[in-house]
Amino acid sequence: MSFPLYRHGDVLLQATSAPATPLHRQPHLTLAHGEVTGHRHQIRDQHAAVLYSVTPTPTPGRDQFLHVTAPQATLTHEEHASIRLPAGWYRVWQQREYTPGSVRVVLD
Amino acid sequence: MIRFQSGGRTFRRPAAQTPDPAPAVPQARVPARPVTPAPVTLSPEDARARLRRGEGFAALVVTGPLNLSGSRWLRTLPDWLRCTALTVDDCPHLSTLPADLQADRVSARRCPELQDLEGRLSIREGLNLSGSGLRRIQADLHATRLILAGCRDLAAIGGAVSVAHLDVRRCAALTTLDAGLHVTQTIDVAGSGLRGLPGQLRAGLRWNGVPVDARVAFHPESLTGRDIMAVRNVQRRRVLLERIGIDRFLEDVGGLVLDRDRDAGGERRLIRVPFDDDEDLVAVLVQCPSTGGRYALRVPPHLRTCREAVAWTAGLAVHDYHPTQEA
């Protein structure tokens, strides 16, 4: 059985078990930040979740885990409809696109 | 002794100097060169050990490359520093570079607390600050190469900055360059917020290393798909494709439909455009289920179905890509 997968624009979240790797707690709940538009995929409820990065100096949209600690948390964006996430752990990453010779994260 | 403030730092000048003439017009704030305290000379190993213990140095000469990368304990460096190479990548608490720094090479990548660059820096080869938290440069800075790629919050490069090559790729908050900026050879502007250069700046434009003209760099709206099909140089064609965007390019030139299906947003299409001398362009066109906006993502040319293509953009195998919800 596969874990539930959510797509919010170019951001993907997949439910997972609690990660065993060391994590770095982030002081914000912005999952990804549009460099050009300034728009953010973020959790609206400040006390409903905690965002972690796998690396000490994180790059939003990559190598992240979200822990929804409340019964649910709302994922919002200026343009996309909101998604409600049930309690639990999620791996967070961004869509990618291809260019000859390299693969890169989608930037909006 | 004269003291004055500049950018939050105090500099001293020798008392024996001739008086400065009264300034006629306000100039960019550039700190005066401080008096050199008697420097301590150390080997790289000794310098690292003593800095690690928290020893402070007014002036330090290091007789080789000083590598302090990844040092969580590092918050500041001596105000006056001479070394062959200084590497302080990934130092999460480092907030300043030396106010008076001379080195062959300096690398301070991914230092989030490094937000202001001030003082006098003379770097013979390159100063690499990519991915740092820089918000402002206000320095007397001479270097062959100044790399600021990915400094997302950088909004101003001021002072007396003179470099041969400037790299401001992905500096999205940098929308203008100071008229006093001196760049003798190239500026890489890919993904920056710049929409033009100051009139007196004659440096050659680059887009991710590829020479481009001002039309490609700053006015991609004037490009057409047919312009791009006519470009023979593969690197240049790829830059033009990036500038025009896959969506508009496909609008202009069409392409062969390899596959169609439907998802939560409506119809999806996989399109192929063949190029001479380069691999085919294959892109999946999808519609966002919540905004209704259509967009295209380029995917590897071996993919043959929309399902494969969209799963690839998520980094998943086709049988693992079944979204519970999309918005």
Automatic annotation (TrEMBL), chain A:
Protein's name in the database: Uncharacterized protein
Source organism superkingdom: Bacteria
TrEMBL record, chain B:
Low complexity: bias regions: 25-41
Region (Disordered): 1-43
InterPro entries per record: DUF6745
Domain DUF6745: 206-326
One Pfam family hit: DUF6745
Name recorded for this polypeptide: DUF6745 domain-containing protein
